[in-house]
Amino acid sequence: MGHLTRRALLAGVSAGIGLYAGRTLLAPTSATGPVFPAEAQAEDGAVLLNDSSELSPTPVAKHVVVTADPRGEAVENIRALMAEAQHAGRPFIASAARHSMGGQSLAKNGSVLTLDQQWLEADAASKTYRVAAGTRWSTVIARLDTIGFSPAVMQSNNDFGVASTYCVNAHGWPVRFGGCGSTVRSLKMLLADGTHVTCSRRENVELFQNAMGGYGLFGVITELELDMVPNSRLEPRFDSVSGAELGRRFAEMLNNDASIQLAYGRLDVSLDRFFEDGLLIAYRPAADQSDLPAATGSGFISRVSREIFRRQVGSDGMKHMRWWTETSLGPKIAGPSTRNSLMNEPVVTLDDLDPLRTDILHEYFVAPSRFAEFVALCREVIPASFQQLLNVTLRYVDADTDSVLAYATEPRIAAVMLFSQEKTVRGEADMARMTRELIERVLAIGGTYYLPYRPHASIDQLVRAYPRAASFAENKREFDKGLLFRNHLWDAYFARL
Question: Which candidate, 326, 479, 485, 493, has a CA 20 to 30 Å from the CA of 289?
Fold first, then answer.
């Protein structure tokens, strides 16, 4: 939920292709020590880009924005940009909102493509829709809503590009699904040699499986075909549970009630009762499904929630208030809402607006039967750090049988954690230490961690979390012999396997 870098992108757009010459600056001073990292210096003519961590300033040789539909000239333009990068010996990577937090969407001194498109075609008979790779989920919801449908699975906020969601295989809170990739029927992708191929579970299967959660390292996706489901009016139900029991109760709830469409959990993050209490929220179809209203976005409650959310930093009192609003006030004021409206929330709603701090996400995946162990290890590790944990959201993720870099080889509870971190040397060093300790303990209980965030894990930890990592790297070298598609994730980890 950190800062996005989508503003002022379209300077100099011509025929859907433009160059952005802006740069992201970091705060120069902090009361708690030197800012981390020192501002990167771009070479003459280079552009300085960052991602949502605000800790990955990266000089790039060329930044190009594509807004055109993925037909005809747009594909040819991307192919030409790839060939130009190859001729110059530069790496190439495609991205959308750059919400990753460790340079996964950036290529140092390379060519970076930002896809920002709006093309969508839906087929109500087959319950599928096709989108341009850079179409944002907000556009998907708006277009499908008019014909009575909703994305089967989308990322938990609506700011992100559809292909990016596939490339990190992100999940959401629609239940009984794996990652978004489980709902992708097919896609078209430009390979390093310029070939434009179709990939699916029947055609170019190996490419499909590697590109799903493959962080753009196999090619540039141009369009995708995904499943959609009927939109519906849903009613929430709130159940208080102990933190240790939440994982087991979550799985039991879904096994016992097939009507649930959306579900998530929360944990109390106040230090004096850290992870002791939990809350399960499930959405079931309402009796009245007539005259569904148009999908809405962030409302008054979201704006009020931001003020409470941000005042939690360093304050158990505000964390207590926030927990009260969720467990006592929330159930009293919550009413029916459509599926599309519930999912139509931008990440910027909770933007911190603090130049000396940044939001950093962690995510861990553990079996429901071992969730109590996860709660115990978090209680030992997190409060002993300098980090300010502001939120934990729990989701249910079904087993992934497709992607090579699968984070859920069996049904898992996903714990999405949002930390507010000082942008200092001290803050970054402490975050790295805490992250490695959490990963080590999660691995010990058979869990995994998610790759789009800060690159603090050791290579050994990555290999143990993702046993097919070496195969992924080998496949990458086979399909991209010149290693055109590279990013910080490749450079830091897979290039060394």
Answer: 326
Task: Please answer whether residues 162 and 358 qualify as being in contact, where contact means their C-beta atoms are separated by less than 8 angstroms.
Answer: no
pLDDT attached to residue 297: 74
What is the average pLDDT across 109-136? Answer: 97
The sign of the CA dihedral 423, 427, 432, 435 is negative
The sign of the dihedral angle between the CA atoms of 333, 337, 339, 340 is negative
For every residue of 300-340, DSSP letters joined together read: HHHHHHHHHHHTTTT-HHHHHHHHHIIIIIHHHH---EEHH
Please give the torsion angle defined by the CA atoms of residues 161, 217, 16 and 195, in that order, rounded to the nearest 10 degrees: -130
Tokens standing for 491? Answer: 């450079």
DSSP string of 265-310, one letter each residue: EEE---GGGTTTEEEEEEEEE-S--SSPPPP----HHHHHHHHHHH
Q: Does residue 359 sit in helix, strand or coil?
A: strand
Q: How far is CA 86 from CA 215, 426, 441, 485, in A?
A: 19, 39, 42, 10
Averaged confidence pLDDT in the chain: 90
Assigned architecture for domain 233-463: 2-Layer Sandwich (3.30)
pLDDT at res. 298: 59
Q: Does the pLDDT of residue 330 top 90, yes or no?
A: no
More confident residue, 160 or 23: 160
Tokens 């002022």 belong to which residue?
8
Structure tokens at 465: 């979390």
Residue 72 and residue 55: Cα distance in Å, rounded?
Answer: 37
Q: What is the pLDDT of residues 14-37, one digit of tens each?
A: 222 322 222 233 333 445 556 665
Question: How far is Cα of residue 480 from the mean position of the Cα atoms in its chain?
Answer: 25
pLDDT at 397: 98
| Best CA proximity match to 25, nearest among 383, 355, 456, 486 | 355
Amino acid at 319: K
Amino acid 333 reads I
